[in-house]
Amino acid sequence: MDKVQNGYVPGLKGVPATESAISFLDGQVGLLTYRGFPIVDLARFSSFEETAWILINGGLPETDELARFDAELRANRRVKYNVRDIMKFLPIDGHPMEALQTCVASLGMFYPGQERMTANGVNADSEFVEQMIVKILASMATLVAMWEHIRRGDDPVQPRTDLTYAENFLYMMNEREPDPVEARIMDACLVLHAEHTINASTFSALVCGSTLAPPNLVVASAIGTLAGPLHGGANQRVLNMLDEIGSVEKVSDWLDQRLANKQVVWGFGHREYKVKDPRADILQGLLEQLREHRSGQISPLYEIAMALERCAEERLAPKGIFPNVDFYSGLLYEALGIPRDQFTPIFAISRTAGWLAHWKEQIANNRIFRPTQIYQGYEPRSYQPMSSR
Ligand code: ACO
After folding, report:
1. How far apart are CA 198 and CA 277, in angstroms?
2. Rounded to whole angstroms, how far apart are CA atoms 305 and 298?
3. Is 326 a catalytic residue?
4. Which residues are responsible for catalysis (predicted)?
5. Domain extent for 307
6. Which of 6, 152, 187, 310 has a CA between 20 and 30 Å from the CA of residue 342?
7. pLDDT computed for residue 2 by the predictor
8. Residues with CB under 6 A from ligand 1
């Protein structure tokens, strides 16, 4: 039973934090829509570019609107040379989410415009809003791929304008033209992770945005929040956990032990879903597609993951705990040649579309977030200087 006292709800469970028209989820039936469009259709038929446009602008784009947006994203893929210099000073064994947050935060210094957040004294200049949305979204994939090369001591791979967002990201990461099936799978992954109502990182973006901070800092704030293992950071832990289990035969005992120790199973459970996360189902379908494409060759960890899901059906499903989006995504990314600590940054690339859509919605009808607290500390008491203590 959740503790509710004096109106305080721990974790703000079930407490509406805003009104929004961007996405909707029904956790009882496993439905997720972006601007009313079911995620299952978007993952199958749309692209990350179009999905970002839908989230940010509210409906389906006309052909020329999408072409313009796509062209702007392509034209803005390069980041200033100085960002590369910043990366060169970061410790190579630091987590990529920290490198990403640092570099995204710095973007505003290269494209200043803080004063345009209050152009007429109150509202943001809409041209600045649109420009920054494109600039940040286009830069995200470049920053993630750049760090991969810089931390290895290599020169980063320059972005290309003749590739889609997903193709270009895989090209910059792996330094080779992506296989079309793999690029389409990456595109679907970006669509699936782009938005998810008011989760922790989006809430963080809203709070930061409500102070009229510039959008690069709004996204940096959300990146920090996404990094934690209870949120986006779980995808990396899932693979380490599957390694630790080691084989299909060991799954049952491992799970019993894990639950007896009151430890969470990474990639399982969700505040909102009481059925299997629809994105986990779609990601598993993409894994099957990749397996077929590779004539049955895919990670042995996939077998362990499926055995864990079957085992958890008896132990966790009765409590409404099922695989979430992070359970199968890492298996796909690893199969696409991406290092484990880059899984959460990929999540961040995609979720930037949702964060910026929420930022735009927030500042169009802004009120600063300033909740209150239930004070549990001392009554006022007298301070004793050190000399008389
Ligand atoms: N494994 C085992 N038990 C779990 C799990 C899990 N993954 N998730 C929840 N539970 C149990 C809790 O221990 C608790 O049990 P209790 O009632 O006996 O104390 C009960 O289910 C309710 O859990 P809460 O922690 O109250 O759920 P909450 O909504 O606060 O947390 C969260 C949700 C953080 C996602 C949680 O399920 C979790 O820690 N999962 C593992 C981490 C993870 O995969 N995070 C990614 C989520 S998706 C995303 O953010 C992109």
Report:
1. 16
2. 12
3. yes
4. 270, 326
5. 234-335
6. 310
7. 58
8. 11, 199, 230-232, 234, 264-271, 319, 321, 324-326
Residue 382 included in any domain: no
What region does 209 belong to: left with phi over 0, alpha with psi -120 to 50, or beta? alpha
Q: Are residues 282 and 216 in the same domain?
A: no
Query: Do 153 and 252 share a domain, yes or no?
Result: no
Cα distance between residue 141 and residue 345, in whole Å: 9
Distance CA 307, CA 238 (A): 14
Together in a domain, 275 and 188: no
d(CA 346, CA 313): 29
8 vs 200, 374, 377, CA distance in Å?
17, 7, 16
Q: Is residue 369 part of a domain?
A: no
- Closest residue by CA, ligand 1 atom 34: 230
**Angle 155-159-162 (CA atoms, 0-180°, nearest 5)?**
145
Residue 353 · residue 51 · CB < 8 Å: yes
Same domain membership, residue 248 and residue 212: no
Q: Which of 321, 327, 351 to mutate to test the pocket of ligand 1 (most atoms within 8 A of CB)?
A: 321
Tell me: the pLDDT tens digits for 253-310? 999 999 999 999 999 999 999 999 999 999 999 999 999 999 888 899 999 999 999 9
Q: At 311, which CATH number?
A: 1.10.230.10
CA angle 69, 346, 37 (to 5 degrees): 55
Distance 130 CA to ligand 1 centre (A): 37
- ipTM tops the 0.95 cut: yes
Task: Return the sign of the alpha-carbon dihedral for residues 62, 142, 20, 198.
Answer: positive
Q: What is the CATH number of the domain that holds 104?
A: 1.10.580.10
Query: Token pair for residue 317?
Result: 């499903």
Are 194 and 68 contained in the same domain? yes
Q: Is 277 a catalytic residue?
A: no
Q: Along the chain (389 residues), what's the average pLDDT of each consecutive run of 10 residues?
A: 74 96 97 98 98 98 98 97 96 98 96 82 85 97 98 96 98 95 97 98 97 96 98 96 98 97 97 96 97 90 97 94 96 96 98 98 95 95 96
Mean pLDDT (the chain) is 95
Give 321's contacts (C-beta < 8 A, 6+ positions apart). 265, 268, 269, 312
Give a yes or no: residue 303 inside a domain. Answer: yes
